[in-house]
Amino acid sequence: MKKQKARSAPLYLTIVVLIMVLISVVLFGSLQFSTTDRDIHAEHKEYVIPSKYENIHTKTVEDQSDEKRYLLHASWPTTENETINTSLDAFASDFISEFEEVSADIKQSREEYIRETGNDGVTFHASYNLHFDVSFANDDYVAFTFTKHRNTGNTGTDEISTVIYDRNTGEEIPLSSLFADPNYLERLSELTRRDLYERVESSADESEFDSEDQRKEWIKSFKTVMVDPGTEPTEDNFSSIVINSEGFLEINFDKYQVAPGTWGVVTVQIPLSEVRDLFSEEVRSLFDLNIEPEKGASAQPPINTETPSGKVDCSVEKCVALTFDDGPSAYTAELISILSEKRIKATFFVLGINARIQQQTILDLTHAGMEIGNHTWDHKDLTKLSIDEINDQVNRTADLIETITGSRPELVRPPYGAINEATAIAINAPVVLWNVDPEDWRYQNSEYITSHVVENAKPGAIILAHDIYETTVKAMPGIIDELQAAGYRFVTVSELVGEGRLVDGKILSYISKDF
Ligand code: NI
């Protein structure tokens, strides 16, 4: 695979448009699409968030039963329209149910395997991940592109699809409605094959084959076995379609749909000039609009992170650090109000996929003096990823946060706390775990969370919580009041640990246990 060196390149902001207009609307929106490519080294596009995202927030469900053997991390959007929300909740709920069924089956098979062989059944596990991009948003329409990641063995699948909603009626709009030409699928099939054939040929490096005949044979079989079936002109094969403002129609294919798994999700870009005639008149008229990006949150200057509370000396005072993972979410704003009202600081280990949607919340956190940490892009178990994939998870998130706030997050918390020495070295940043864990994802009960944290807090404690659960947010006023009454000061993780002890590649839970 070609190695494009993308991470050192300046982050580049792009506004992309998905066309989905059926009826004649004056549509003037800017939107984005973050490209997924066959190569994880490919450049990731990040973008300015349009004001039209205001009412779009994320919801998340996480599960990590049986000592992290069965992992679920699902996030999906909510909007101002309850009909859309019901549809999205049902979509997420189907995925979650599937995870529950699959992991129950695997659990049973594993138990049988252990009984029969006496081995530990280490290969039996399941990891499910649902995340999304806002592909388009204006006052009238919103489009989401979802990726479903499923891993039940040594390798995972990624399934990608785009859903469009009418924001006024809440109705889902089929992708086929974008096209006027009844043969649009045949045309898309033809054009994507042309592009993919070229890629296959250029990926067949002469030096890797004994002869030209062998090379030709390999190319031929790649085309007939992978590309052709995956690009048959059916709606199923073309379930993720986006139009971008750079003048391309982007078509996303699932991992394994048109190429081997090493290509990942494959995106084909077709110049709009070649497909213009396929679209409905209303959609076509849009191409003539000179779409300017809206000024977004990231255009704001870097934030002053000075806080009113002043410095706390943790070598003298009893300090604890509250940490919140997996957000920002629909509940984060309420949490910020609670923390601000009590004039305390905390550390938020955010996910790139959620930060991208709720950029304003990231700014609000920074304005409120909170520390932002990096919880990776989309919450995969880093110990199961390659070094390149780990770097991608960490850097892509750090790049985004730096774009939004002007400063780069220093600390990394690995999803599920899954870490080993090699992974920590690959992360190449201070790795922060915790030493007080109310398991708020398991016990979604505010009273229980409060009593667990209060009873287990000690000077130097790093408390794990998640701002994706309403019960957790509701527990905070009580926790803060009780610990403050006991003489504790709340600080960020960086303040708690202290400058000299923040070492790249070092796992900080070991340090915090000594406190
Ligand atoms: Ni997490």
Explain how this protein is built:
The chain is of the alpha/beta class. Helices cover 35% and strands 18% of the residues. The chain contains 15 helices and 14 strands. It has helices spanning 65-68, 82-117, 184-203, 212-230, 272-275, 281-287, 332-341, 352-357, 359-367, 387-405, 421-427, 446-456, 470-485, 493-497, 508-513; strands at residues 57-64, 70-78, 126-137, 141-151, 156-166, 172-173, 241-244, 248-253, 266-271, 318-325, 347-350, 371-374, 461-466, 488-490. The protein has a 6-stranded mixed sheet. Strands 10, 11, 12, 13 and 14 form a 5-stranded parallel sheet that branches. The chain has a 3-stranded antiparallel sheet with strand order 7-8-9. β3 (126-137) and β4 (141-151) form a beta hairpin. The longest helix is centred in the first third of the chain and has 36 residues, at 82-117. The radius of gyration is 24 Å and the shape is globular. The two termini are 47 Å apart. Residues 1-51, 289-309 and 510-515 have low confidence and may be disordered. Bound molecules: nickel (II) ion (NI). Nickel (II) ion is lined by residues 325-326, 375, 379, 415.
- The fraction of residues in strands falls at 15-25%
Q: Low-confidence runs (pLDDT<50, min 5 residues)?
A: 1-51, 289-309, 510-515
What percentage of residues falls in helices of 4 or more residues? 25-40%
Summed up, the helix count is 15
How would a crystallographer describe the biggest sheet?
6 strands, mixed
Overall structural class, as computed from helix and strand content, comes to alpha/beta
Distance between the termini: 47 Å
**Tally of strands:** 14
Return the average pLDDT rounded to an integer.
Answer: 82
Order of helices and strands: EHEHEEEEHHEEEHHEHEHHEHHHEHEHH
Shape: globular
Radius of gyration: 24 Å
Hetero ligands: nickel (II) ion
Strand order of the largest sheet: 1-2-3-4-5-6
